């Protein structure tokens, strides 16, 4: 990628712009340890800062324990805020992960 293309990509997604999405937890066991670990792994694979909120409690998107403390059971809604170069791609990846029930069979 040329420097001009890199600058164009950078300009199209400002690092300071915060994007937000709400997700419903649809897997059978909710945001348990394994699901939280997959969530964190997805976040860490993107150049973005993330916070997750449920019922007024906000935690960092790279904290497995923090995510588990949200006690997001099936049917709960979480709000994810992301900022950074890959914020939109990250939110898309999280949407897919959650819709796919974190890879769980049920």
Task: Describe this structure in a few short sentences.
The chain is α+β, with helices and mostly antiparallel strands. It contains 4 helices and 4 strands, in the order H-E-H-E-E-H-E-H.
Tell me the layout of helices and strands.
Layout lengths: L2 H10 L5 E7 L8 H12 L4 E6 L2 E4 L3 H6 L7 E7 L3 H13 L7
Antiparallel strand pairs: 1-4, 2-3, 2-4
Count of β-strands: 4
- At the first level of CATH, the class is Alpha Beta
Low-confidence stretches: 1-12
Quick check: average pLDDT? 89
Provide a descriptive summary of the structure in words:
With 106 residues, the chain is an alpha+beta fold. The chain has one domain: 2-Layer Sandwich (Histidine-containing Protein, Chain: A), CATH 3.30.1340.10. It is 39% helix and 23% strand. The protein has 4 helices and 4 strands, in the order αβαββαβα. Strands 1-4-2-3 form a 4-stranded antiparallel β-sheet, with helices on one face. The longest helix has 13 residues, at 87-99. The model is unreliable at 1-12 (pLDDT under 50).
């Amino acid at each position: 990628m040329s420097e001009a293309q890199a600058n164009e990509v950078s300009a199209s997604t400002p690092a300071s712009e915060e994007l937000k999405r709400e997700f419903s937890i649809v897997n059978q066991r909710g945001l348990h340890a394994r699901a939280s670990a997959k969530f964190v792994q997805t976040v860490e694979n993107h150049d973005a800062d993330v916070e997750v909120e449920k019922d007024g409690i906000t935690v960092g998107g790279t904290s497995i324990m923090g995510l588990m403390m949200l006690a997001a059971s099936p049917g709960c809604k979480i709000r994810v805020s992301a900022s950074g170069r890959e914020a939109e791609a990250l939110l898309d990846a999280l949407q897919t992960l959650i819709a796919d029930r974190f890879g769980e069979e049920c």
